[in-house]
Amino acid sequence: MPEYRKDPVVKRWVIIATERAKRPHDFTVPKDKNKSGFCPFDYGNEHTTPPEVLAFRPEDTEPNTPGWWVRVVPNKFPAVDPELEIQKYGHGMYDAMTGFGYHEVIIETPDHNSTFALLDDKQATEVVWAYVKRFNAIAKDQRIKYILIFRNHGIMGGASLSHPHSQIIAIPSVPKRVLEELNGAKDYFDYKERCVFCDMISQETIENKRIVEENEAFIAFAPYASRFPFEVWIVPKVHSHNFGSIDENEISEFAKILRNILYRIYKVLDNPPYNFVIHTSPTYEEGKIYYHWHVEIMPRLTRVAGFEWGSGFYINPVPPEDAAKYLKEVEL
Amino acid sequence: MPEYRKDPVVKRWVIIATERAKRPHDFTVPKDKNKSGFCPFDYGNEHTTPPEVLAFRPEDTEPNTPGWWVRVVPNKFPAVDPELEIQKYGHGMYDAMTGFGYHEVIIETPDHNSTFALLDDKQATEVVWAYVKRFNAIAKDQRIKYILIFRNHGIMGGASLSHPHSQIIAIPSVPKRVLEELNGAKDYFDYKERCVFCDMISQETIENKRIVEENEAFIAFAPYASRFPFEVWIVPKVHSHNFGSIDENEISEFAKILRNILYRIYKVLDNPPYNFVIHTSPTYEEGKIYYHWHVEIMPRLTRVAGFEWGSGFYINPVPPEDAAKYLKEVEL
């Protein structure tokens, strides 16, 4: 049974994921799960995953059979479990909570060897539709406080299966990193009476040195204080705190710019590992005026090591102005 | 010239390290710096590093020649620069600061193929003496607010050279991660009138399920809310906020328990990559009653991926109680 545990000093939550429990030996033998050639996300292997919770498929096909073009299933080895009751308890001086939550996988295409960067407009848009539909479905569960959509690409990016997929983890508390953003954005709003992300868009537009691409609804830029080489953020141009309220036109604009940025990274850095996360407000009505949803794309080119872990500072050897220049030059 | 830049939302500082500036190509070709066989930290290559700032060597040897058993030099590709003036400046809405600071390398032994886990008592103690001497020397510079001593081991741990070494980075502000610990420890003290780390020692001792080793002056345990599999913290038993005030007896006890824990990890996990950091109070007199210096050792067995970056939550598949059991069983 997974368990949340809280660090008593910095109040950081950790999920002790017993479903994924490992012995020392599991870390010392090289993993090559995909070398066997079997992939649970391929056509014909639908029965090897938990039953689908959403699929875009022809009307004349049965659930959990081939034919789908996007498919969402619960994670077979979930970090958290939607069947658990939420219970908080103490353990001496320490705080813990049952590991309630949702952990789902969005299989982005039946094509095992593709990747988000290489999807066409239509397919990328369908993937984003799956994000939005699952986001809004899970948001109806009042016990859930935060829904995180993210993508790990490449072994170094933490992807244990190479078949193109994203993930959703939904949890009953607001995570620390998001709280920091909410608090920071609120401080800024209290001082300036403006949204800090809206101000960033304005600053980036005036300078035009870190913008990589923009379209009608979104802007993508290398942030001024990029933690990682070639980090890129995608931000909606019109203020909006909630990813779930994105409309049909925005969905297709968002899918395009996200795919384009991933393609630029793919070309400039030769298909590097990366992570992206969608940061949005908590599912309750927080942050409406001061928070602004966005995507943070983080190529995994440098190793986060002792200094970064110890300090929370990052050392980045690529000025974001240079990164933007290289990424902009890519022909789409 | 390196530059500190501040994220306008979460106020996280980043060092844009132009001394280490890289082009996209540098990330796409495999690095095998050490494959050439040349190591700047070996005997006879002392002239290839910046001149030593401290060395333990026989009295009849010249500086920057062989004979030393521990040697400290400025980093040849420093993230920060001690020659810069501190200047804060704005860049539109953004905040920046010149990249002032110290970045030094502690070469732990002349033996290229050794590692901290395999040092004998005497050599491990000498390394800790070098930590303490450099810590206290740098602390005299009033412009420095924080000194971080850390060690990266293995390529996956971020070590770009395999010759055994630790690093020191000293900066003119208190890093975010440390501030969080200071604030958390202060909150706890305000509520309980006790040090949270002292309480953890008491809790761990009562339970005795996560302790890996202890000696006269130190205790090592797998923390209750371990972020990483086989994470271990080493904490002085007597309350002390400042690493720099460690005494001669404590230095040798600390060296032994640190080496022993690293040896246990080396044996159980077959010489895995890891990072460790020494967390101490800022160099000014903060945290005296409520903060408690300690070491955090983090084996790098799982990949920190989208979920962790996006949330600040960690998923750990090894309960710390299990990790402690495996580590305890190792024969020293």
TrEMBL record, chains A, B:
Active-site residues from the entry? H165 (tele-ump-histidine intermediate)
Q: What is its EC number?
A: 2.7.7.12
Under Pfam families, the record lists: GalP_UDP_tr_C (PF02744), GalP_UDP_transf (PF01087)
- What cofactor requirement does the entry state? Zn(2+)
An MF annotation (GO) of this entry: zinc ion binding
What GO biological process terms does the UniProt entry carry, in alphabetical order? galactose metabolic process
Q: Using the record's annotation, list all stretches that form the HIT domain.
A: 196-309
Family of this protein: Belongs to the galactose-1-phosphate uridylyltransferase type 1 family.
Q: What is this protein called?
A: Galactose-1-phosphate uridylyltransferase
